[in-house]
Design goal:
single chain; mainly alpha; Penicillin binding protein transpeptidase fold; 11 helices; about 60% helix
Length: about 250
């Protein structure tokens, strides 16, 4: 009789403890969601998604996606309060690295591109880290992978005043984006990863572009987008940038 009473008492305490932990968890999630909404309201505005007509052709979309995300499927996983909590707590509880949700890296790139553009005052937007985080979360909840890709590809700088992959394809490849191959798509995408003088004069750094292009092609093959034969054929293509006014833009010394 006595042991039965003690057992029920312990179970009652355990139940109360679990209930308390549950309430703490719910409160934490509510606080995180409230913080997200507060920071979102502090933003000067929200980016406008591209029109359907501005979306990238399949070859370019797949290649551009591989620059940011490892998976083959163009899917953005919405980030919710419990998603963020699980990502942060995983290394602490299980000792394993955090797993970023699909599309998060691309959403962050869009945040950087949008905030770098001049505001109504003519100056780039000055966003706090918390505002950038909130905007990235909002993008994963409201934009598709195709919209994120189209926005980022439309605003990337490719040197010589070229902005966007559509203009880049015309300027450097003398082609429209709808007709480019995976090798050409990987070349344009790799140009976006250059920095400084290399980005301003990509035609002067072919030796840097080729390995970048080939790594993207490898990632496409690993994701199942390309076969080994298709990857090998794309790698064999020469890296050529057809800059019409090359003589007006000498390479930096």
């Amino acid at each position: 009789m006595f042991s039965s009473t003690r057992w029920r008492h312990r179970m009652r305490l355990l139940g109360l403890g679990l209930c308390g932990l549950g309430l703490v968890g719910v409160g934490l999630l509510a606080a995180m969601e409230g913080f997200y909404r507060l920071e979102l309201r502090r933003l000067p505005g929200l980016p406008t998604p591209p029109e359907a007509a501005d979306r990238l052709p399949a070859n370019l979309a797949r290649t551009w996606w591989s620059l940011f995300e490892p998976g083959a499927t163009l899917t953005v996983e919405p980030v919710w309060a419990w998603t963020a909590l699980a990502t942060v707590s995983r290394p602490l509880v299980f000792g394993t690295p955090s797993h970023l949700t699909s599309g998060w890296s691309l959403a962050n790139a869009v945040v950087n591109s949008w905030s770098a553009h001049p505001s109504a005052t003519g100056e780039p937007l000055s966003l706090k880290a918390s505002q950038r985080l909130a905007l990235g979360i909002w993008l994963t909840r409201h934009w598709s992978a195709e919209e994120l890709l189209a926005f980022q590809a439309r605003h990337v700088r490719l040197g010589h005043g070229v902005i966007g992959v559509s203009e880049g394809a015309r300027r450097y490849l003398a082609k429209e984006t709808a007709g480019i191959t995976f090798a050409e798509a990987a070349l344009l995408t790799s140009m976006a990863g250059l920095g400084g003088a290399q980005r301003e004069h990509p035609e002067c750094f072919i030796d840097r572009l080729r390995p970048r292009r080939d790594r993207l092609l490898q990632r496409l093959r690993e994701a199942g987008v390309l076969t080994q034969a298709e990857e090998a054929a794309a790698r064999s293509r020469s890296v050529v940038l057809r800059l019409a006014d090359f003589t007006e833009h000498p390479c930096p010394r």
